[in-house]
Amino acid sequence: MKKFFGLFFISILVLCVNLQIASAAATPTPTFRYNLTWDIRNIYYYTDSAAQSNYGTPISNASHNWCYTGYGNSLYPATRTTNQSNAAIDFHTYSKADGNNAKTELRIFGSTTPQIANDNDWDWGRIMINDYEIGNDSSYIQGVVAHEMGHVFGLDHNDTNPNSIMCSAWAGRAVNTVQKVDNDAFNLKHP
């Protein structure tokens, strides 16, 4: 009888854990109310000299990952340009003990202040990678960059799903590449 109750208890515990994992995996990635105005089929990114020197490979890998998720989307080509005015995303660096691996600003041409994603459309994004906080794990940096690129594309945080690139690192993001849940949100935003 004890063996039966022990097996019963373990079965219930395994079922609860599996339901919790399935629930997290099913949490859709939310999107911002407004949109990037740039043609998603013509995305280029610019890196200043410090960002290129320190993070060129993870930036390139994150960009490639957004284009080729394995789930299909309309993003193309997401390649580097040396002409900043042709870029929908600019990468820069800063160094400050502020608890952030990176920051994204959504910008309107001609404006000197960032936009709030749920107040207005934006024309381009500035991603600033924090040299002080980010560390040197290339795969992790790629995840941070892919996460920040998701914001420029109009995706919000998905902090209840650690299997989403849009889960914040501090909330326990367990992945460093774009997942199906993120790609699905991208496709809803950019049909």
From TrEMBL:
Instruction: List the SUPFAM superfamilies.
Output: Metalloproteases ('zincins'), catalytic domain
Q: Name one GO molecular function term.
A: zinc ion binding
State the UniProt keywords alphabetically: Hydrolase, Metal-binding, Metalloprotease, Protease, Signal, Zinc
Q: Name one Pfam family in it.
A: Peptidase_M10
Lineage, top-rank taxon, reads: Bacteria
Q: Could you tell me the EC number(s) of this protein? A: 3.4.24.-
Kindly indicate where the leader peptide sits in this chain.
1-26
What is the name of the protein in this document?
Matrixin family metalloprotease
